[in-house]
Amino acid sequence: MAVCFQFQSPLKPINFPVSTPRKVPLLRCKASFSTTSTTEIEPVFTSVKSFAPATVANLGPGFDFLGAAVDGLGDYVSLSIDSSVTPVTGLGSSAASAAAAAVAVNELFGAKLGVDQLVLAGLESEAKVSGYHADNIAPAVMGGFVLIKSYDPLELKPLIFPQNQELFFILVSPEFEAPTKKMRAALPAEVGMPHHVWNCSQAGALVASVLEGDVVGLGKALSSDKIVEPKRAPLIPGMEDVKKAAIKGGAFGCTISGAGPTAVAVIDNEEKGKKIGQKMVEAFLEEGNLRSVAMVKRLDRVGARLIESVPR
Questions:
Q1: Where are the domains of the chain?
Q2: 168-298: CATH homologous superfamily?
Q3: Least confident window among 16-25, 101-110, 226-235
């Protein structure tokens, strides 16, 4: 029996109704999938289609332990069953594809796995590609902001951004490659105590701002990294000037999304975000000689979810 995957990638803008956010508890799970069972699980659908959102990782001082999901941008995964061929287990190359695939496979076989197991499945996939870090896959599966409290065992803490507060991500992606391996190699092997203390305090401020719905405070903390961003920004032409343009244009904060090259800024007004995004595009072109595309997206509060399915 074969599971056939159809990926729509890279990330595509999407539009669909957002359902009520799921209540996700603090997750404590051990990364082990060993089993002695040899029983083959029978699928309950002939095909399924799922979606998982794009994510913004690190968020300035939250390197490898903070991430957020972005609404209206992500990957679809469609799966169908061919009962005459042996199953295939490959997943996508990004967290969004991995999360959507995990949800689709889970639904295909009767939704037997919980959120914690879906995160672990996606994390194992990510480990093969970009390393064992959950700041993309966790928010892709769970939605919203997610804090990684521990990796061994894996402990995830959803940070609930207030429903009555608006938060928009200004995402500006230049035509430039910033391989994760290269960007990680640029990081310092040792960190001085002053910078360590500063980043820890700003990470705490970032978490507090998320929980309080304080977009201004969130932006300030997001912009405050003294360890990772200073090493990576010079590797992306124009990035430092793009950040200045975002702040000057009225953004509450700006940093590198994940390993880059996308710049992410935050604001509480969509129309203002579009104007700031244009200023950032101009800065990439003028200072970095890079063409870029700007998008303004809300926080995705739901995470990976099923779009459609066809029962047997």
A1: 2-161+300-311, 168-298
A2: GHMP kinase, C-terminal domain (3.30.70.890)
A3: 16-25
